[in-house]
Specification:
Number of helices: 3
Structural class: alpha+beta
Order of helices and strands: EEEHHH
Strand order of the largest sheet: 1-2-3
Distance between the termini: 37 Å
Shape: globular
Number of domains: 1
Radius of gyration: 15 Å
Number of strands: 3
Largest sheet: 3 strands, antiparallel
Helix content: 25-40%
């Protein structure tokens, strides 16, 4: 079983980054998850940190943003400030 080394969040708390010690040749493995990810698939300490940060309001805002982004053309995305 891998051990969670660190957990951090993006400035707006919509992305969770965590590292695990895979006990292999590499020193650690990086993981990135967002509010639409199934938290039952991550270690419990990561799940608990995400549940603390990801309020219903934040998750709703994230999902609305993802939906609107997917409907935009590349020009509209650029005009909206996306890279």
């Amino acid at each position: 079983m891998s051990e969670v080394i660190s957990i951090s969040f993006s400035p707006d708390n919509t992305v969770c980054y965590y590292r695990t010690d895979e006990q292999s040749n590499k020193p650690f493995k990086k993981h990135t998850i967002t509010p639409d990810f199934d938290l039952n698939l991550v270690p419990s300490e990561v799940k608990n940190a995400c549940l603390e940060k990801w309020t219903d309001e934040l998750v709703d805002k994230y999902l609305k943003r993802q939906t609107s982004y997917s409907k935009m053309t590349p020009i509209e995305r650029k005009e909206a400030g996306y890279k």
